[in-house]
Amino acid sequence: MQRNAVWKSMDFFLTAKHRAMLKEEYGVESWHFEQHQDEAVFIPAGCPHQVRNLKSCIKVAIDFVSPESASQCLELTQERRQLTLRENQLLSAAGQEPDAPIDRRHSDKLQAELMIARAAAASLAQLR
Q1: Residues 5-34 pLDDT 10s
Q2: Which of 3-17, 53-67, 87-101 has the lowest average pLDDT?
Q3: How many angstroms separate the CA atoms of 110 and 62, rounded?
Q4: Ramachandran region of residue 2, left (φ > 0), alpha (ψ -120 to 50) or beta?
Q5: Name one Pfam family in it (predicted).
Q6: Percent with pLDDT over 70 in the chain
Q7: Is 79 in contact with 8 (CB distance < 8 Å)?
Q8: Which residues have a Cβ under 8 Å from the Cβ of 41 and sit 6 or more positions away?
């Protein structure tokens, strides 16, 4: 994993103060908006983002992966696995237990390997 790819760990939430500092010190601009009932939000692939729920809600997400980006998805999956292993090793060394047997923060939500296997199976079925 890249050294300064802290956003991948999902351990931090940027406040308005943090976003102002990023803009002032590094020229990084961010967007802030509120999503209301019956509104949809499209987030471009690879775009770091964070969500803060102001009320109870249900998230419905549809992930689209083009064949050209499948290798990147597998790479990200592996990076997240390594991050989880490293964090669990640090916790064990400190005599602490991980929060859950499988750390939910770093689980493969996209399921890239399963997606690729299903696409391959569908392709083979079409060839028969």
Answers
A1: 555 666 678 888 988 998 999 998 888 888
A2: 3-17
A3: 10
A4: beta
A5: JmjC
A6: 81
A7: yes
A8: 35
Q: Are the beta carbons of 13 and 105 closer than 8 angstroms?
A: no
Angle at 28 between CA 50 and CA 3, to 5 degrees: 70
| Burial class of residue 73 (count of CB atoms within 10 Å of its CB; 0-12, 13-18, 19+) | buried
pLDDT per residue as tens digits for the range 78-89: 887 887 788 778
Question: Token pair for residue 81?
Answer: 């696995």
Residue type, 87: E
